[in-house]
Automatic annotation (TrEMBL):
Organism: Acinetobacter qingfengensis
Active-site feature positions: H100, E172
Record bears the keyword Transcription: no
HAMAP family in the cross-refs: TIM_B
SUPFAM superfamilies the record matches: Triosephosphate isomerase (TIM)
Top-rank taxon: Bacteria
Matches recorded under PROSITE patterns: TIM_1, TIM_2
Lineage per the UniProt record: Bacteria, Pseudomonadati, Pseudomonadota, Gammaproteobacteria, Moraxellales
Entry keyword annotation includes Cytoplasm: yes
Protein name as catalogued: Triosephosphate isomerase
GO process terms (BP): gluconeogenesis; glyceraldehyde-3-phosphate biosynthetic process; glycerol catabolic process; glycolytic process
Function comment: Involved in the gluconeogenesis. Catalyzes stereospecifically the conversion of dihydroxyacetone phosphate (DHAP) to D-glyceraldehyde-3-phosphate (G3P).
């Protein structure tokens, strides 16, 4: 029987950092400590490095590797500069971030493009880490939940019932990303509970979908976040660039 509770995941999103030599050292430090400490291994750990390093780290087969983006184009063809889900899968990449607010805000990833990316990734057999989250203006206008639910609806519209097992949700309030401001554990839990309730209307497997929190997660706040009933892990930016900090966040979610 499949587990009825979600698995915990801590994912390091390195964004456009660091340079390759430093990246290799950081990756080895994280992978070694994770492999040497059995107590950490109740929590799944994955790294999203910059695109040029994907196949280098993926072929080491130590930790699952996450692409930070994927093309709206499937397969192969005359599409200069694009990286398709199929090629990612071929190079042993296992997961992909879709809908990160930096891509939505800076690179024109609207609902239509995101839905194409979701379809391509699922068809290629990748696991999706689908990011949702509201801006400060939306939160202050009392729209946080409706924004997040709309983003989830856009995911649901292109997801077949059998595909939910390949989906992880990351709630990342935009105002908490890279700002040092974290949502309080109460606010984060409230949103995660709302996400869970909504997912229950979409799929019978909702209780198994990992719901990660992202936005200034650090060792200092990870334990409190990990104690929340519907927070099943973290999507970590800045703190994932320091091996000791990242390991201590993993520790919090491995309890
Ligand atoms: P920070 O942890 O740096 O706030 O970044 C969060 C994030 O965007 C992870 O995807």
């Amino acid at each position: 029987m499949t587990a009825l509770t979600p698995q915990n995941w801590v994912i390091g999103n390195w964004k456009l950092n660091p340079y390759f030599n430093e990246a290799k050292q950081l990756f080895s430090a994280i992978a070694q400590q994770y492999q040497n400490q059995a107590e950490l291994q109740t929590c799944h750990v994955a790294i999203a490095p910059p695109a040029p390093y994907l196949s280098f780290f993926a072929t080491q087969q130590t930790l699952p590797i996450v692409a930070q983006d994927v093309s709206t184009i499937r397969g192969q063809g005359a599409y200069t500069g694009e990286v398709s889900a199929d090629l990612l899968k071929e190079t042993a990449v296992e997961l992909v971030l879709i809908g990160h607010s930096e891509r939505r805000e800076l690179f024109g990833d609207d609902a239509e493009k995101l839905q194409q990316k979701i379809k391509n990734a699922l068809q290629a057999g990748l696991t999706i880490v689908y990011c949702v989250g509201e801006s400060l203006v939306q939160r202050e206008a009392g729209q946080a939940q409706s924004v997040v639910i709309r983003q989830l609806q856009e995911l649901a519209d292109v997801t077949h019932d059998t595909e939910w097992k390949n989906i992880i949700i990351a709630y990342e309030p935009i105002w908490a990303i890279g700002t040092g401001k974290t949502a309080s554990p109460q606010d984060a839990q409230q949103m995660h509970a709302a996400i869970r309730v909504y997912l229950q209307t979409l799929t019978t497997t909702a209780n198994r979908i990992p719901l990660l929190y992202g936005g200034s997660v650090k060792p200092e706040n990870a334990v409190e976040l990990a104690a929340c009933a519907d927070i099943n892990g973290a999507l970590v930016g800045g703190a994932s660039l320091d091996a000791a900090s990242f390991i201590s966040i993993i520790q919090a979610f491995a309890q």
